[in-house]
Specification:
Layout: H1 6-19, H2 21-30, E1 36-41, H3 48-52, E2 59-64, H4 80-90, E3 96-102, H5 106-110, H6 122-128, H7 132-141, H8 147-165, H9 169-176, E4 181-188, E5 193-198, E6 203-206
Parallel strand pairs: 1-2, 1-3, 3-4
Antiparallel strand pairs: 4-5, 5-6
């Protein structure tokens, strides 16, 4: 069996790890203290460390389809994203949460497609229900399927996840107390540019 990325693993062990060995040792001895919880899409074209310049230990990263945040629902089934949010906020005490959406997001586009009823996509269909309100609002503004609608959906999706974060008691409490800040980013993967959401102006502004 051929191990994927074998050369990369060897390069890390022989060169990169040695370069950052003291940093890894420090993180083991003192524990992690990330500067932010970074919630982004599983899309392979997004590289959080590259677009932020973050160092090892700076980001507590959560990735899922469409960088979505399921609303707080303690009686629901176990969910990894919800658990990661709680851990980051209440155990690691991160001072920032960044929701980073992006252009050409497959999850947002698939809101407008019929995924059928196959068991192969049962969890995908359920997951996309998080954004059913986003789809409704987007179609009211742009009722024509196409890139313009998708871009609007991608941005509205980010705003929705910021709202969903505030349904978590610890997140809401810490935001109100000034201990935690929430940010929404829109990363344009074809341009390498990032816009941030300004809630006062209710629009995205280039960084």
């Amino acid at each position: 069996m051929e191990i994927p990325f074998l050369e990369g693993i060897k390069n890390f062990q022989n060169f990169k790890f040695k370069k950052y060995q003291e940093r890894f040792k420090e993180l083991v001895e003192k524990g992690q203290s990330p500067k932010a919880l970074f919630i982004t899409c599983s899309d392979s074209r997004i590289h959080p460390g590259e677009i932020t310049g973050a160092d090892i230990g700076d980001l507590f990263i959560v990735r899922n389809i469409g960088n979505m945040v399921p609303p707080y629902k303690p009686d629901n089934d176990f969910h990894g994203t919800a658990a990661a949010i709680e851990y980051a906020v209440s155990v690691l005490n991160v001072p920032n949460i960044i929701v980073c959406g992006h252009s050409y997001c497959g999850a947002c586009e698939n809101l407008y497609k019929d995924l059928g009823d196959s068991e192969d996509l049962i969890h995908v269909r359920k997951w996309l229900e998080i954004d059913k309100d986003v789809k409704k609002i987007a179609l009211q503004q742009i009722p024509v399927i196409g890139r313009e609608l998708f871009e609007l959906t991608e941005r509205l999706n980010i705003i929705k996840q910021l709202e969903n974060l505030l349904t978590y008691p610890a997140v809401k409490r810490k935001v109100e107390n000034g201990e935690l800040s929430l940010y929404g980013w829109y990363y344009m993967i074809d341009k390498g540019k990032i816009e941030y959401y300004d809630p006062e102006k209710n629009r995205f502004i280039p960084v």
